[in-house]
Amino acid sequence: MNTIATNISPRSSLNKRYGSVDRVGVESRVAKFQTRSIKTGAKTRGLKLAVSMLDLTTLEGSDTPGKVAALCAKAKMPHDLPDVPRVAAVCVYPALVAGAKECLTGTGIHVASVATSFPSGQSPLTTRLREVREAVEAGADEIDMVISRRLFLSGRHEEMADEIRAVAEACGNAHLKVILEVGELETYDNIRHASFLAMEAIRPMDFIKTSTGKTANNATLANTQVMLEAVRDYYLQTGKLIGIKPAGGIRTAKQALHFLVAVKETLGDRWLDPSLYRIGASTLLNDLLRQIHRMETGRYAASYRFSDTM
Questions:
Q1: What is d(CA 93, CA 184) in angstroms, rounded to the nearest whole number?
Q2: Which of 15, 87, 160, 241 could disulfide-link to 151, CB 3.0 to 4.6 Å?
Q3: Does the N-terminal peptide bond of residue 119 adopt cis geometry, omega within 30 degrees of 0?
Q4: Among residues 30, 13, 36, 71, which one has the least CA distance to residue 307?
Q5: Would you state the torsion angle of the CA atoms of residues 211, 217, 221, 224, taken in this order, to the nearest 10 degrees?
Q6: Regarding beta strands 110-115 and 142-146, do their DSSP bridges make them parallel or antiparallel, or are they unpaired?
């Protein structure tokens, strides 16, 4: 028996294949991103860019067609100040896709749908694939799937990657965003390895995404930085453009600007575009609008001007 081969752990094998993460280096870099000084004109442009990158999201059990219609209205006209862009997408549960599509047809705003037994990913694969196909048939332009953390954490990495490939095929022409659920992956190395496995399984211009927003540890600058560096390294190796979407826990304009600084300094201007970078959020838009209003008028507006329904 080849004892050397049999003693190689799945983690050691992935470290050899994809590399490991310098924890101190990552956390030092993201600390510096938070010290960058963004001047007045650049700050206004950054705030508006962040609005244009938003996947405006509602994923609650109490969601109704009326709530989604109100959210779509806000997506189309976030604010009455000039030059405030529309958001990139509205993200809803599959049962609400058709209504969102009806509201947004002709606007250029995409309809995104979570799928694959969101947020757990614990249903049988046939059930998850059927949910994807039904969401696409209802009009979804984008599918946000969750990986099987069960498969990844038990070392069944290729099986997990095969599931992602099957979902990508079920998407047809819809773009795919693969949610890693970083809070359940436990280590930076696992986040990097899952990022590579997902990127190898998806198509150019598809995305990897941090989180569902349904766990305690969602998008942080540090775990997002691990994914940004994985996207950069994969692009340098293959020339394949992969998008990235942090989601969950990004609630203030200040945080959003820090995330954009990380993108610019890690991946460059090519990724500062909604086609390759999104921010998943439900409450962030109001703070972005409030800060834009202050930059444009010199004063803060009352909070009621930025209600969920505009």
A1: 22
A2: 160
A3: yes
A4: 71
A5: -30
A6: parallel
Active site includes 22?
no
CA dist., res. 125 & res. 102, Å (int): 29
Residues forming beta bridges with residue 144, ordered by sequence position: 114, 177
Catalytic choice (48, 74, 209, 287)? 209
> Is 101 among the catalytic positions?
no
**Residue 124 DSSP symbol:** -
Prediction pTM value: 0.93
Alpha-carbon distances, residue 278 vs 243, 248, 305 (angstroms) = 8, 12, 25
Domain boundaries, the chain: 23-297
Q: Which of 74, 101, 177, 245 is catalytic?
A: 245
Give burial (CB, 10 Å; 0-12/13-18/19+) of 80. exposed
Residue 55 a catalytic site member: no
Q: Is 147 exposed, middle or buried (0-12, 13-18, 19+ CB in 10 A)?
A: buried
pLDDT confidence of residue 1: 37
The pLDDT, as a whole number, for residue 309 is 46
pLDDT at 80: 83
> Which residues on adjacent β-strands are paired with residue 101?
none
Q: Classify 23-297 by CATH class.
A: alpha beta
Q: pLDDT averaged over the chain?
A: 93
Query: Which ranges in the chain belong to alpha helices (H)?
Result: 3-6, 10-18, 23-33, 40-52, 65-76, 97-104, 125-137, 149-153, 157-171, 188-201, 221-238, 253-266, 284-297
Measured from the Cβ of residue 5, the count of other Cβ atoms closer than 10 Å reads 7
Catalytic residue among 55, 144, 189, 287: 144
Q: Which residues pair with 26 in a beta bridge?
A: none
